[in-house]
Design brief:
It is a single chain. By secondary structure, this protein is of the alpha/beta class. The chain is 33% helix and 24% strand. It has ten helices and 15 strands. It has helices at residues 11-22, 37-43, 53-59, 74-83, 98-111, 125-135, 170-186, 252-257, 303-315, 323-342, and strands at 2-7, 27-33, 48-50, 64-67, 87-91, 115-118, 142-148, 191-197, 208-215, 218-224, 233-239, 242-247, 276-281, 290-295, 346-347. The strands form two sheets. It has a nine-stranded mixed beta sheet. A six-stranded parallel beta sheet has the order 3-2-1-4-5-6, with helices on both faces. β1 (2-7), α1 and β2 (27-33) form a beta-alpha-beta unit. α4 (74-83) packs parallel to α5 (98-111) and α7 packs across α10. It starts with a strand and ends in a 6-residue tail after the last strand. The mean pLDDT is 95.
């Protein structure tokens, strides 16, 4: 079994990483570092607890460390892990700059270690469904893609993601997810235009974004608002042969929060009421009549990420999220902030890997 340590015991660790690790036969959770050691002692009596991350990195006998601490310490902690000879999984968006990411990638390569990023929403059921529809050429030539991650959180909360600092705000939080999904589907854009703003009263970080990625003959809109109390659209894809519209978020996060794990047969299964709809012309009908069909959502499977991590560590299998891919995500995150501040459309730089 792969011996795992987790740095941080906040929302991400409790909701995603620890339940996914504990539900897999490939991993053994042996250490956690957190300032909440008294609370953890009551819950985890058989694992090693550390009150700070450097102590865990230096003292625990581990094959893999998962970093879920605030974004601004991801780089320094990941560097310590790699220098100690330990494989690393880092919460998205990996680090706060593309230059930091490049440095870590080179260090992992030099040490022959796995460096991966938890872009779990590549395994959202709705994203897998949209990806499948595109691969089936259901849309003909795609001309417009819209991806939303809206929520109703009109009040600023005392969480590090909502306080000023490196990598804070929802553009680096939620934006990282949907930028990664867009790149997975369409590759890198030619240019982008962005508005990344603090719209809530008292907000000092981005809590709203509307970013347009410009491709040849395709526009991609990435949007998130903190004021959306209505049913939330997730995807809208328009092409020369039809349109797909999907509302609601993948159920896995809520399931994990309530204790449902991948070992439950209902895990990752979306309710039929939330399935998306495809709208297209009826084949052979020259009247232009549009038919609506329901599209069953593919089951979500966050556990697939860690299954592939286990294969990568034990058998040398492929990395489920290559860090070079995340460099491109970070470059878009950085460029969008420049676009928003300058009010200009920015061309994507041509970078040779």
């Amino acid at each position: 079994m792969i011996k795992v340590g987790v740095i941080g015991y906040g929302y991400s660790a409790k909701t995603f990483h620890i339940p996914l690790i504990e539900s897999s036969a490939s991993f053994e959770l042996v250490a956690i570092s957190s300032s909440q050691t008294e609370l953890l002692r009551m819950k985890y009596s058989t694992i090693s607890l550390y009150d700070n991350a450097p102590a865990l990195i230096a003292g625990a006998d581990l094959d893999l460390i998962i970093i879920t601490a605030p974004n601004n310490v991801h780089f320094s902690l990941a560097k310590l892990c790699l220098e100690k000879g330990i494989n690393v999984v880092i919460e998205k968006p990996m680090v706060t700059t593309s230059l930091q990411a490049i440095e870590l990638i080179q260090l992992a390569k030099d040490r022959g270690l796995l460096l991966s990023v938890f872009h779990n929403r590549r395994w959202d059921g709705d994203f897998l469904t949209a990806k499948s529809l595109l691969q089936q050429n259901r849309f003909g030539s795609v001309r417009f893609f819209e991806s939303h991650f809206d929520r109703f959180r009109p009040t600023v909360r005392p969480r590090w993601r909502e306080q000023p600092g490196e990598g804070a705000g929802i553009w680096f939080d939620l934006g990282a997810h949907i930028v990664d999904q867009a790149i997975c589907l369409f590759g890198l854009p030619e240019a982008l235009t962005a508005r990344c703003l603090p719209l809530r009263e008292g907000s000092q970080t981005t809590d709203y974004f509307h970013v347009i990625l410009h491709y040849e003959n395709l526009e991609v809109v990435l949007h998130a608002s903190s004021f959306s109390a209505a049913p939330n659209m997730r995807f809208r894809i328009e092409g020369t042969q039809g349109t797909y519209v999907k509302y609601g978020l993948d159920p896995q996060e809520e399931q994990l929060k309530t204790g449902i794990t991948p070992n439950d047969p209902l895990y990752g299964v979306e309710k039929a009421a939330n399935y998306g709809r495809f709208y297209g012309e009826i084949s052979g009908d020259t009247s232009g009549q549009i038919r609506q069909t329901t599209v069953e959502t593919v089951n979500g499977c966050y556990q697939q990420y860690y299954a592939e991590i286990a294969q990568a560590i034990t058998l040398g299998g492929p990395n489920p999220v290559e860090p070079n891919d995340v460099v491109e995500v970070l470059r878009i995150l950085e460029l969008a902030e420049i676009s928003s501040m300058s009010g200009k459309t920015m061309l994507m730089p041509k970078v040779n890997r």
